[in-house]
Automatic annotation (TrEMBL):
Domain of life from the UniProt record: Bacteria
Protein name: Uncharacterized protein
Organism of origin: Dorea formicigenerans
Alphabetical list of InterPro entries matching this protein: DUF6553
Length: 189
């Protein structure tokens, strides 16, 4: 029973439903993993009802870093990347025990599942030109793969921070493999 709600929690991409699952299953004794899940929840959505997703916002910031200029005046790009690492709770990832590290990985995987869901369902994302015509299913998968490649692999590589973003890269791979099995070749790692 214990593992069932956790699996459901990490597969659910609707924030209010996730909050309900978290509240229902962590109201009694809290394990170290439960405390960590709650910490990740606050880092991602804030202390109140979820209105914005800071982790998805961090993915968008990484995308902008990758697509921006390669010049780094005063180390601003690396400072922004360090802020993203902190927001995504990756700063202490190496010091976490195996269970907590797995929880962080699953939360980051959930972020990519949310990103793919929003992309797939967004009319602007799936249209060809100015909302005219729709991409084929295969075209949408390729476009999502391109976005994830930019966020999870190109940005950290350009910043020479692959080690710091290793857990994020692993989460991106797991989420993409789950949603699009046998299409990993679309990713540019």
């Amino acid at each position: 029973m214990e593992a069932a709600w956790i699996e459901t929690f990490y597969q659910e991409t609707d924030a209010p439903k996730r909050l309900e699952l978290l509240k229902q299953n962590t109201e009694n004794e809290l394990t170290q993993a439960d405390v960590f899940r709650k910490k990740l929840w606050v880092a991602r959505y804030g202390k109140r009802k979820p209105t914005k997703d800071a982790f998805v916002g961090s993915l968008m910031e990484l995308k902008c870093l990758a697509e921006g200029t390669s010049l780094d005046f005063g180390g601003q790009r690396r400072k922004q990347a360090a802020k993203i690492i902190s927001t995504l709770c990756l700063a202490d990832a190496d010091s976490l025990n195996e269970e907590l590290r797995e929880n962080l990985l699953m939360e980051l995987k959930n972020v990519f599942l949310k990103f793919m869901e929003v992309s797939r369902d967004g009319r602007g994302f799936t249209s060809l030109v100015f909302g005219m015509g729709q991409l084929s299913d295969e075209g949408v998968v390729k476009k999502i793969a391109e976005q994830i490649s930019t966020i999870a692999f190109q940005a950290p590589h350009a910043l020479h921070m692959d080690k710091e973003f290793a857990l994020l890269q692993e989460a991106a791979l797991q989420a993409f493999r789950q949603e699009y099995p046998n299409r990993e070749h679309f990713l540019k790692k």
